[in-house]
Amino acid sequence: MVTANSSQGVSPPVVPHPQRHPQTQQLAEHGAAGEMELRAAGREGHQQHRGQQQQQRQEVFVSTAGRELLAGFAAGAANVTSGYPFDTVKVRLQSAAPGRYRGALHCATEVVRSEGVRRGLFRGLSSPLVGGTAETGVNYLVYSRVLAALTPAQLTPGSPPPLECVAAAGAVAGVALSGILGPTELVKCRMQQAGSAARYPGGPLQCLREVVAREGGLRGLTRGLGATLTREVPGNALFFTAYEALRRNLPDSSGPPHGSSSGSGGAARPERHWLEEAAFAIFCGGAAGTLMWAVVLPIDVAKTRLQTAQPGSEWDVGLRKHWAMLWREGGMRSLYAGLTPTLVRAFPANACQWLAWELAMRGMRGDGEEQ
Fold it and tell me: Region annotation Disordered: residue ranges (predicted)?
């Protein structure tokens, strides 16, 4: 006989689930929904916070980049205007036949005597004023942004970026500005040549139209671009490195640190009176510009010859051949033609450039920004 407790064919007893009270179940459902709403609200709040942070970073970047660009425009206008008469004498000496002028002073005197100050020393100013202003603005903007990107993240807050980062940022900026400098300096050099008043009575625009029409359009405008790059990449690296090195080695005044006005990737300098800051900018900027031009002048001489040469002439050759021809023509004297007006121009022009940059950045610093 099979008993009721036998294991054969007997199903296990079913245990009923305890039933919740309707009010308890309703509270549980509301609690789950509330938890889901809280989680959704938390995610939405986090996303909004991240969006606000990104917007703030973008606003800070745009604001900083805008100030750097505008300060660069001011610096470029100051450089071009203050140094243009010296640059005219330099170009005349570099492009003239050997023996045409006895020196820089004789050249300047001849230009003023035969053409006057405005039509002689300042002839063709509009082209480099526009180009130089844009070029310097781009130069400082690219330099500052690249330097900020290259500065090591683990650097102690308030410490200046390594000078090798400064040099690299200057070199990259030199590439960027060469595209603007090439065509504007082509027109400038041709307008500064002897006899340009008769050849281009319509001014820089006539010169520009003739280059485009007679020398192959874009190919004519970019004549000497390779030489400009060869000058600007090492020259710009040296320029910024020399300026920063000099600023860092000057005696510091006492006072709380503040952000560098030169955009040096967060480098901190002690607070100084603006007159002292201006004096330091004048000295360091002038010295850096003088050093840079003393080094790159042979490249600049060849570039001037190349950009003022007529297509198909003996001077319509590359940089290396230009240097060989200049050496045969007069050795070091030809390679460094225009040295005196270049160095005389370099200090005041670059001092004015850095002074304008520092003061413009200081003047545009926001009230809420760190001093």
Answer: 1-31, 41-60
Q: Is the pLDDT of residue 306 over 80?
A: yes
In this structure, is residue 29 part of a structural domain?
Answer: no
Does residue 28 fall inside a structural domain?
Answer: no
Distance of CA 358 to the CA centre of its chain: 14
Question: Quick check: is 313 in a domain?
Answer: yes
Structural domain count, the chain: 1
Digit-coded pLDDT (tens) for 134-190: 888 999 999 999 999 999 988 887 789 999 999 999 999 999 999 888 898 899 889
Q: Which of 135, 316, 330 is nearest to 235 (CA)?
A: 135
pLDDT exceeds 60 at position 295 = yes
The amino acid present at 329, given as its one-letter code, is E
Alpha helix (H) residue ranges in the chain: 22-95, 104-115, 126-150, 163-192, 196-199, 204-214, 218-221, 225-249, 274-308, 319-330, 332-335, 339-364
- CA–CA separation, 167 vs 143, rounded Å? 9
Tokens of 82: 């203050």
- Is residue 4 a part of any domain in this protein? no
CATH number at residue 189: 1.50.40.10
Q: Which domain holds residue 112?
A: 60-364
Q: What pLDDT is attached to residue 96? A: 80
Q: What is the pTM of this model?
A: 0.70
Contact yes or no for 79/134 (Cβ under 8 A): no
